[in-house]
Amino acid sequence: MLEVWFTEQQTASVRLGLRVDAILAKQKTPYQELVVADTTAYGRMLVLDGAVQTTTVDEFVYHEMLTHVPLMVHPNPRQVAIVGGGDGGAVREVLKHGSVDAVHLVEIDQRVVEAARCYFPALSESLSHPKAHLHFTDGLQWVREARNFDVVMIDSTDPIGPAIGLFQPEFYQSVAQALGPEGVMVAQSESPFLQPAVIQTVVRGMRTAFPVVRLYLAAVPTYPSGLWSFTLGSKGPLPGPLDPRRVVTPTRYWTPAVHTAAFVLPRFVEDLLV
Fold first, then answer.
1. Of 12, 38, 49, 184, which residue is least crowded by CB atoms under 10 Å?
2. Domains (range + CATH), the chain
3. How far apart are CA 182 and CA 184, in angstroms?
4. Which of the residues 109, 150, 155, 158 is marked catalytic?
Protein backbone atom coordinates (compact mmCIF):
# COMPACT_ATOMS: atom_id res chain seq x y z
CA MET A 1 0.00 0.00 0.00
CA LEU A 2 1.36 3.38 -1.03
CA GLU A 3 1.47 5.93 1.78
CA VAL A 4 1.78 9.67 1.21
CA TRP A 5 3.28 11.81 3.95
CA PHE A 6 3.46 15.57 4.42
CA THR A 7 6.60 16.80 6.17
CA GLU A 8 6.94 20.27 7.64
CA GLN A 9 10.49 21.44 8.27
CA GLN A 10 9.68 23.28 11.50
CA THR A 11 13.29 24.18 12.29
CA ALA A 12 16.66 23.17 10.90
CA SER A 13 16.59 20.12 13.20
CA VAL A 14 12.87 19.37 13.74
CA ARG A 15 10.28 18.01 11.33
CA LEU A 16 6.57 17.18 11.67
CA GLY A 17 5.30 14.25 9.59
CA LEU A 18 1.62 13.59 8.90
CA ARG A 19 0.11 10.85 6.77
CA VAL A 20 -1.97 12.33 3.97
CA ASP A 21 -5.17 10.68 2.75
CA ALA A 22 -5.83 13.11 -0.10
CA ILE A 23 -4.49 16.36 -1.54
CA LEU A 24 -7.49 18.55 -2.29
CA ALA A 25 -5.84 21.71 -3.59
CA LYS A 26 -2.40 22.99 -4.44
CA GLN A 27 -1.70 26.38 -5.98
CA LYS A 28 0.80 29.19 -6.10
CA THR A 29 -0.93 32.40 -5.05
CA PRO A 30 0.58 35.85 -5.67
CA TYR A 31 2.11 35.61 -2.18
CA GLN A 32 2.74 31.98 -1.22
CA GLU A 33 2.19 28.31 -1.94
CA LEU A 34 -1.19 27.06 -0.66
CA VAL A 35 -2.05 23.42 -0.06
CA VAL A 36 -5.19 21.82 1.37
CA ALA A 37 -4.98 18.15 2.34
CA ASP A 38 -6.87 15.57 4.35
CA THR A 39 -4.71 13.90 7.00
CA THR A 40 -5.31 10.74 8.98
CA ALA A 41 -4.51 12.20 12.40
CA TYR A 42 -5.61 15.83 12.25
CA GLY A 43 -8.33 15.98 9.62
CA ARG A 44 -8.32 18.64 6.97
CA MET A 45 -5.21 20.82 6.95
CA LEU A 46 -4.25 24.19 5.45
CA VAL A 47 -0.56 24.63 4.60
CA LEU A 48 1.10 27.87 3.49
CA ASP A 49 4.67 27.82 2.20
CA GLY A 50 5.16 24.39 3.71
CA ALA A 51 3.97 25.33 7.22
CA VAL A 52 0.78 24.02 8.83
CA GLN A 53 -1.60 26.90 9.49
CA THR A 54 -4.66 25.08 10.78
CA THR A 55 -6.30 21.68 11.00
CA THR A 56 -9.90 20.79 11.73
CA VAL A 57 -8.90 18.70 14.75
CA ASP A 58 -6.90 21.27 16.76
CA GLU A 59 -7.82 24.67 15.28
CA PHE A 60 -10.15 25.50 18.17
CA VAL A 61 -7.26 25.77 20.62
CA TYR A 62 -5.42 28.44 18.67
CA HIS A 63 -8.46 30.43 17.62
CA GLU A 64 -10.08 30.47 21.06
CA MET A 65 -6.92 31.50 22.85
CA LEU A 66 -5.99 34.15 20.28
CA THR A 67 -9.40 35.82 20.58
CA HIS A 68 -11.12 35.27 23.91
CA VAL A 69 -8.14 36.21 26.06
CA PRO A 70 -7.71 39.78 24.75
CA LEU A 71 -11.47 40.27 24.36
CA MET A 72 -11.98 39.37 28.01
CA VAL A 73 -9.11 41.62 29.12
CA HIS A 74 -10.69 44.64 27.39
CA PRO A 75 -13.60 46.00 29.47
CA ASN A 76 -15.99 46.51 26.53
CA PRO A 77 -14.71 45.44 23.11
CA ARG A 78 -16.82 46.82 20.27
CA GLN A 79 -14.48 47.39 17.33
CA VAL A 80 -12.08 44.53 16.56
CA ALA A 81 -9.47 44.07 13.83
CA ILE A 82 -7.73 40.85 12.83
CA VAL A 83 -4.59 41.03 10.69
CA GLY A 84 -4.20 37.74 8.83
CA GLY A 85 -6.45 34.83 9.68
CA GLY A 86 -8.00 34.35 6.27
CA ASP A 87 -9.35 30.94 7.30
CA GLY A 88 -12.01 32.76 9.36
CA GLY A 89 -11.57 30.90 12.64
CA ALA A 90 -10.70 34.03 14.62
CA VAL A 91 -13.71 35.88 13.18
CA ARG A 92 -15.94 33.00 14.27
CA GLU A 93 -14.71 33.27 17.86
CA VAL A 94 -14.82 37.09 18.03
CA LEU A 95 -18.48 37.07 17.02
CA LYS A 96 -19.35 35.01 20.10
CA HIS A 97 -18.94 38.26 22.07
CA GLY A 98 -22.22 40.17 22.06
CA SER A 99 -20.54 43.52 22.71
CA VAL A 100 -18.70 43.41 19.37
CA ASP A 101 -20.27 45.70 16.77
CA ALA A 102 -17.81 45.00 13.95
CA VAL A 103 -14.82 42.79 13.19
CA HIS A 104 -12.48 43.76 10.36
CA LEU A 105 -10.42 40.99 8.79
CA VAL A 106 -7.32 42.26 6.99
CA GLU A 107 -5.90 39.52 4.78
CA ILE A 108 -3.29 40.16 2.09
CA ASP A 109 -3.98 36.93 0.20
CA GLN A 110 -7.54 36.62 -1.09
CA ARG A 111 -6.84 33.05 -2.22
CA VAL A 112 -6.61 31.97 1.43
CA VAL A 113 -10.17 33.14 2.06
CA GLU A 114 -11.37 31.48 -1.15
CA ALA A 115 -9.77 28.19 -0.12
CA ALA A 116 -11.25 28.42 3.38
CA ARG A 117 -14.74 29.01 2.02
CA CYS A 118 -14.38 26.00 -0.26
CA TYR A 119 -12.66 23.51 2.02
CA PHE A 120 -13.20 24.75 5.62
CA PRO A 121 -16.87 25.78 5.86
CA ALA A 122 -17.02 25.45 9.66
CA LEU A 123 -14.12 27.89 9.96
CA SER A 124 -15.12 30.36 7.29
CA GLU A 125 -18.90 30.62 7.62
CA SER A 126 -18.64 33.66 9.91
CA LEU A 127 -16.88 35.62 7.17
CA SER A 128 -20.35 36.19 5.69
CA HIS A 129 -21.78 37.57 8.95
CA PRO A 130 -23.08 41.15 8.65
CA LYS A 131 -20.67 42.28 11.40
CA ALA A 132 -17.66 40.91 9.47
CA HIS A 133 -15.83 43.23 7.07
CA LEU A 134 -13.10 41.85 4.79
CA HIS A 135 -10.16 43.91 3.52
CA PHE A 136 -7.81 42.30 1.01
CA THR A 137 -4.78 44.49 1.48
CA ASP A 138 -1.42 44.84 3.21
CA GLY A 139 -1.97 44.66 6.96
CA LEU A 140 0.98 46.95 7.68
CA GLN A 141 -0.48 49.80 5.68
CA TRP A 142 -4.04 49.19 6.86
CA VAL A 143 -3.04 49.35 10.52
CA ARG A 144 -1.10 52.60 9.96
CA GLU A 145 -4.35 54.26 8.88
CA ALA A 146 -6.69 52.61 11.43
CA ARG A 147 -7.91 54.40 14.55
CA ASN A 148 -10.07 53.86 17.64
CA PHE A 149 -10.12 50.07 17.67
CA ASP A 150 -10.62 48.28 20.97
CA VAL A 151 -8.77 45.05 20.18
CA VAL A 152 -6.31 44.22 17.39
CA MET A 153 -5.28 40.59 16.84
CA ILE A 154 -2.27 39.58 14.76
CA ASP A 155 -3.18 36.17 13.34
CA SER A 156 -0.05 35.89 11.25
CA THR A 157 2.02 33.16 9.70
CA ASP A 158 5.62 32.63 10.84
CA PRO A 159 7.98 35.65 10.63
CA ILE A 160 9.05 34.96 7.06
CA GLY A 161 7.81 36.15 3.67
CA PRO A 162 4.78 38.47 3.71
CA ALA A 163 4.46 38.28 7.52
CA ILE A 164 7.93 39.43 8.51
CA GLY A 165 6.89 43.07 8.95
CA LEU A 166 4.28 42.03 11.52
CA PHE A 167 7.05 41.18 14.01
CA GLN A 168 8.79 44.57 14.04
CA PRO A 169 8.65 47.25 16.80
CA GLU A 170 7.44 49.83 14.26
CA PHE A 171 4.40 47.70 13.55
CA TYR A 172 3.52 47.39 17.24
CA GLN A 173 3.76 51.16 17.54
CA SER A 174 1.33 51.48 14.62
CA VAL A 175 -1.03 49.07 16.38
CA ALA A 176 -0.88 51.17 19.55
CA GLN A 177 -1.84 54.24 17.52
CA ALA A 178 -4.73 52.31 15.99
CA LEU A 179 -6.13 51.45 19.42
CA GLY A 180 -8.35 53.51 21.68
CA PRO A 181 -7.35 54.55 25.23
CA GLU A 182 -8.07 51.11 26.73
CA GLY A 183 -6.90 49.20 23.68
CA VAL A 184 -5.50 45.69 23.75
CA MET A 185 -3.54 43.79 21.11
CA VAL A 186 -2.39 40.21 20.85
CA ALA A 187 0.04 38.44 18.52
CA GLN A 188 0.96 34.81 18.14
CA SER A 189 4.62 34.57 19.13
CA GLU A 190 5.76 31.03 18.33
CA SER A 191 7.17 28.25 20.54
CA PRO A 192 9.27 28.83 23.67
CA PHE A 193 11.07 25.54 23.00
CA LEU A 194 11.96 26.00 19.34
CA GLN A 195 11.71 29.75 18.65
CA PRO A 196 12.66 31.50 21.91
CA ALA A 197 14.35 34.33 20.01
CA VAL A 198 11.05 35.15 18.29
CA ILE A 199 9.33 35.45 21.66
CA GLN A 200 12.05 37.80 22.88
CA THR A 201 11.78 39.90 19.72
CA VAL A 202 8.00 40.19 20.04
CA VAL A 203 8.05 41.01 23.75
CA ARG A 204 10.79 43.61 23.38
CA GLY A 205 9.05 45.13 20.39
CA MET A 206 5.71 45.39 22.19
CA ARG A 207 7.38 46.95 25.22
CA THR A 208 8.34 49.92 23.01
CA ALA A 209 4.64 50.55 22.36
CA PHE A 210 2.64 49.33 25.39
CA PRO A 211 2.97 49.88 29.15
CA VAL A 212 1.60 46.38 29.83
CA VAL A 213 3.00 43.31 28.04
CA ARG A 214 2.11 39.76 29.10
CA LEU A 215 2.88 36.35 27.58
CA TYR A 216 0.50 33.41 27.80
CA LEU A 217 0.57 29.81 26.58
CA ALA A 218 -1.64 27.15 24.98
CA ALA A 219 -1.17 23.63 23.66
CA VAL A 220 -1.54 23.42 19.86
CA PRO A 221 -0.41 19.93 18.77
CA THR A 222 0.42 20.63 15.11
CA TYR A 223 2.47 23.77 15.81
CA PRO A 224 6.21 23.46 16.50
CA SER A 225 6.79 21.60 19.81
CA GLY A 226 3.04 21.69 20.60
CA LEU A 227 3.49 24.48 23.16
CA TRP A 228 2.54 27.84 21.68
CA SER A 229 2.81 31.39 22.94
CA PHE A 230 0.78 34.55 22.54
CA THR A 231 1.91 38.03 23.57
CA LEU A 232 -0.62 40.57 24.78
CA GLY A 233 0.00 44.31 24.81
CA SER A 234 -2.35 46.63 26.67
CA LYS A 235 -2.69 50.36 27.08
CA GLY A 236 -4.05 49.83 30.59
CA PRO A 237 -6.38 46.88 31.25
CA LEU A 238 -4.66 44.02 33.04
CA PRO A 239 -5.40 40.30 32.93
CA GLY A 240 -7.34 39.63 36.11
CA PRO A 241 -10.60 38.30 37.52
CA LEU A 242 -13.22 37.77 34.82
CA ASP A 243 -16.76 39.11 34.86
CA PRO A 244 -18.92 35.93 34.86
CA ARG A 245 -21.61 37.79 32.90
CA ARG A 246 -19.19 38.09 29.95
CA VAL A 247 -18.08 34.46 29.76
CA VAL A 248 -18.62 33.20 26.22
CA THR A 249 -19.98 29.88 25.05
CA PRO A 250 -19.59 27.47 23.43
CA THR A 251 -15.85 26.90 23.72
CA ARG A 252 -13.81 23.71 23.67
CA TYR A 253 -10.48 24.91 25.12
CA TRP A 254 -10.90 28.39 26.61
CA THR A 255 -12.53 28.61 30.03
CA PRO A 256 -12.21 31.22 32.78
CA ALA A 257 -9.83 28.89 34.64
CA VAL A 258 -7.72 28.24 31.54
CA HIS A 259 -7.66 31.99 30.87
CA THR A 260 -6.17 32.67 34.29
CA ALA A 261 -3.79 29.72 34.23
CA ALA A 262 -2.43 30.58 30.77
CA PHE A 263 -0.59 33.58 32.23
CA VAL A 264 1.19 31.41 34.83
CA LEU A 265 4.45 30.70 33.05
CA PRO A 266 7.02 27.96 33.59
CA ARG A 267 10.33 29.25 34.90
CA PHE A 268 12.17 28.69 31.61
CA VAL A 269 9.61 30.85 29.81
CA GLU A 270 9.79 33.56 32.47
CA ASP A 271 13.55 33.61 31.97
CA LEU A 272 13.06 34.48 28.30
CA LEU A 273 11.26 37.67 29.25
CA VAL A 274 13.92 39.24 31.46
1. 12
2. 4-55 (2.30.140.10), 59-272 (3.40.50.150)
3. 7
4. 155
